[in-house]
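Running log. JK asked me to keep both predictions on one page so they can be read side by side. First protein, sequence followed by its tokens:
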Amino acid sequence: MTFYVLAVMHLKTRRVHVAGITPSPNAVWMRQVCRSLTDCEDGFLKDASHLIVDRDNSFLAMRDYLSQNTDTEVVLLPPKSPI
């Protein structure tokens, strides 16, 4: 069975946070991950000004949620940029 892991990293401190693990990522799961990451009490992204993401379609829900509900700016990596 394949599991998908979404991890975020704070670049300045190199701290890594596993945001979620699922066998089938979808928009509902991604919105829940966004709510957890931006929680006003202990969300990993609560004070973040930028979030860098690749152009995978699975991040559409995350980009939409963050742009509508937070001040965090979503920055897209250039197309075909190396990982």
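And the second, directly underneath as requested:
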Amino acid sequence: MSIMLHKEWKLILDKKPLPGSWNMAVDDFIFQSLGEEPQTYLRFYTWERPTASLGYSQDIRKVVDVEYCQRNGIDVVRRMTGGKLVLHHKEVTYSLCSSDSQIFTSTLMDSYRLISEALMRGFMKMGLKPLLADAPPDSYVRGNLPCFSYPARDEIEVQGKKIVGSAQKRTGSKFIQHGSIPLEEDEGLLKSVSALERNENKVRMISLSQALGKKVLFDWAVKHLISGISEFFRVDLIPKVFSNEERKLISRIQEERYASNDWTFGNRP
């Protein structure tokens, strides 16, 4: 791939673990803040507590054991993007939000593949040998299995297992894609959080620590991902810190949407 123009992106690096509703509100705010001029934001973050997130259109009672989550201190949020159930815990989460169709084109699949290829550059810097996946079975596409049961087309596999789960929302030339990269394996908790019977859950995931055979920390993983992404897209990443006014707007989105039972349980605008 050849990107001719050298550009600057905003980099948001949230090293402090944050509540799930705040994390989703930040991504939503970034998406809403995109204007007509081409802009791109890259964000990395992590989670204050184990958090189950479900896709925008999913029926919560079919995919999440809400009672189990409430009994065991696991938060539940609904994303603005599609996709399937993800348990966010001991992971690196990324979001990439852009209105730059010169780089990402105007189609979901093209931008999805480009982001996967950029993430793969970061994984290779870690010493991994990632591959792009083929299409998953139709039964997975139509069903309620968790995100890490199968890789979707052009998602990333390592050692035959899924290492990134991503989802995207697109409106015209604007899109946001965010995804989960496990640092440590927590398959048992994922199965407990899912509303499916344990024998129905066929999780095919691998964490960075498993793949590399050593404990991988957030800062180390993010450093390599930032290097790979900036190198792949040939961009400079400029640190971005939210102003007090921006934080107030994010807090309003959090209150009205992602901390709201109406939004989480299905009465969405």
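Observation for JK regarding the second prediction: The chain is about 35% helix and 20% strand.
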